[in-house]
Amino acid sequence: EDIAGLAAFEAILAEDSRIEPRDWMPEAYRKTLVRQISQHAHSEIIGMQPEANWISRAPSLKRKAILMAKVQDEAGHGLYLYSAAETLGTPRTKLTEDLIAGKARYSSIFNYPTRSWADVGAIGWLVDGAAICNQVPLCRASYGPYGRAMVRICKEESFHQRQGFEILLELSQGTPAQKQMAQDAVNRWYAPALMMFGPPDDDSPNSKQSMAWNIKRFSNDELRQRFVGMMVEQVKVLGLTLPDDQIRFDEETGKWQHGSLDWNEFKEVLAGRGACNSQRLERRREAHQDGAWVREAAAAYALREQRVEVA
Ligand code: ACO
């Protein structure tokens, strides 16, 4: 092991400063980052599907334009994150191959179906809300390229959340049937959104080390509880309810408590047996095949430009 490198690495962490791509880092730190960043990138890319499902059926031209822009933002997030992962030495082609081979993880949440227009609102409000809650602390992650990518991503996610909130608010203030549609979407997305934060702390093998490395700043349960506290207030403004009658603020611990979650369902989804896992991967494979000619054309163009420069 590189003793001077390790000392420098530890000194950077001790002063809560940043590790950059050319700095020496332990292999396990590099591996953890590639694992988390690539999982995150894949989530952004697969996450385009459930919402894209509603682009052609958005209720107005304005809603359609907003949703298209939002789905494109998610693609952009995926690209920043793949670039951040590449600075650690793993090429994007390899990450994509792992994803389409079904060997890589992406967030559990994107394996749930979008059944109504209100689901687009619930995704913006709950799913992007949970993403912000999880990702704002990641802006301070010790690995420079990851933390910097997070800053811009979080700004865009804030717009996304407001967009979702506004869809739900309009439905909730609409006809009784529209309000019911909004409530139904919130009922279905609430628990899966809480599971986005990962397994409970005592069942989270990576948390301790990731926190020691200043990658994660808070534990899965801490962030989940913080999120519940935010949603409890926002749902009142929406005029809807959360499907959880056990939520309470525990004066003793100063934390929000939520009802129990079905961690068996979470495990099933992670094992590839969620409602839409196979459909999501199939669609991603098709898109990759359909894009082959674009990649070939871009590579041929780059090669020609290079030759022109040399000549
Ligand atoms: N969906 C799928 N897999 C998950 C989820 C989830 N919601 N939560 C945890 N896991 C996986 C972990 O990746 C890990 O598996 P691995 O070791 O094969 O990678 C395993 O479950 C155990 O979990 P933890 O030990 O708690 O893992 P970790 O410390 O990485 O924490 C967390 C998980 C909180 C999701 C973390 O990786 C993280 O903050 N990632 C960045 C945010 C992110 O990926 N967001 C994507 C969804 S939001 C969006 O993009 C719109």
From TrEMBL:
GO molecular function per UniProt: phenylacetyl-CoA 1,2-epoxidase activity
InterPro entries per UniProt: Aromatic_CoA_ox/epox, Ferritin-like, Ferritin-like_SF, PaaA, PaaA_PaaC
Pfam families per record: PaaA_PaaC
Signal sequence region: none
Alphabetical GO biological process terms: phenylacetate catabolic process
Domain of life, per lineage: Bacteria
SUPFAM superfamilies the record matches: Ferritin-like
GO cellular component terms, A-Z: cytosol
Family matches, as NCBIfam families: PA_CoA_Oxy1 (TIGR02156)
Protein name as catalogued: Phenylacetate-CoA oxygenase
Organism: Psychromicrobium lacuslunae
Classification of source organism: Bacteria, Bacillati, Actinomycetota, Actinomycetes, Micrococcales
